Amino acid sequence: GTGEGMYLGCNAGACSFRNGIIANNFVHDTGGAQGDGIEVKEGAFGNDIRDNVIVRTPYPGITMYGYASQDPQNIVERNVVWHTMDNGIQIVGQIIVRNNIVLGAAASGIASKPSQTYLPHDALIQNNTIVGTASCLKTNNWTGQLGNTIVNNALYCPSSIDATGGAGAATILANVGTGTSNAASGFTMGQGTDLANAAMADVWPPPGSALLGAADMAHQAADDFNATMRTHQTVGAYDGGAAMNPGWTVMEGFKPLPPTPPPMTDAPPFVDCPTAGATCPNMKPAGCCETGGGDPSGLLVLLSWWSARQTFRYRRRRARSSPR
Predict the structure, then answer these.
(1) Contacts of 267 (CB under 8 A, 6+ apart)
(2) Helix (H, G, I), strand (E, B), or coil: what is residue 178?
(3) Structure pTM?
(4) How far is CA 44 from CA 20, 49, 114, 312, in A?
(5) Are 125 and 153 in contact (CB under 8 A)?
(6) Element of type H or E holding 156
(7) Taking the CA of residue 81 as centre, how many other CA atoms within 13 Å lie in the half-sphere pointing to its CB?
(8) What is the separation of C-alpha 57 from the centre of its chain, rounded to a whole number of angstroms?
(9) In the predicted structure, residue 163 carries a pLDDT above the cut 50
(10) What is the pLDDT of residue 215?
(11) How many CB atoms neighbour CB 2 within 10 A?
(12) Which of 37-51, 179-193, 292-306 has the lowest mean pLDDT?
């Protein structure tokens, strides 16, 4: 049939896919008459499409449409889209597209255009890295539309920004790359050495890259492609700041889950405070006075104390109620 990897929702909005998470999938070598990687139909809202790897699709790797309400935007973030025979990521509007890496799309890396009565407004295209496509970013019919922003993207294509028909009132800031741009402003020329080894899908910005220190911080994404907090003023999908990428090496296959913090250790059983002025043997309840003991503080302590207190009360109730 049409051959999509995922087809979520219904054509013409007959049903809608809402508030979903599509994460950590490997979609590749789709076929059929179309073969989108992940297609989310019109009327969908509140969805997060993240950390997927999508390779060799005849139609766009990710296809998103618009919706008619004021519900939460869709988000497309931290995905790899590689060697599609069409656009890498195709959208209308009402969406955030950030921290994605798009490599070698036959058409445009990210394309925004009207579709099925929906118009391209309120699209934020932020901190993406796009390499080797015919045009990195292409917009159609943005004139007269509001709320569109293109900011902090690394764009290394023959045509970096192609605002067909004009960008209208769009905010275009701090994009860096090579090739041409017909946007009135918001694009700075870089050089081929801005990316570590784009031919091998390594688009980390090494020392000396024009991407470093070039971002507009008022529009900077909070984290990056590696799901680490940004602490540098770097354009593109990575935060930069190190000689080499400390995260996952882009390759065909599943992208690993983002790192998680170590599990909290269980608090020791609660012990009632001794007499005032002595050292508490464990975390204290309100009103316990002690002189030392290295008592930790903060929200984690309060939560741990509360959990331990509840466990102690439960065990004491059971002891009193159990037959002897």
Answers:
(1) 282, 283, 304, 305, 307, 308
(2) strand
(3) 0.80
(4) 9, 12, 15, 47
(5) yes
(6) strand 154-164
(7) 42
(8) 21
(9) yes
(10) 98
(11) 13
(12) 292-306
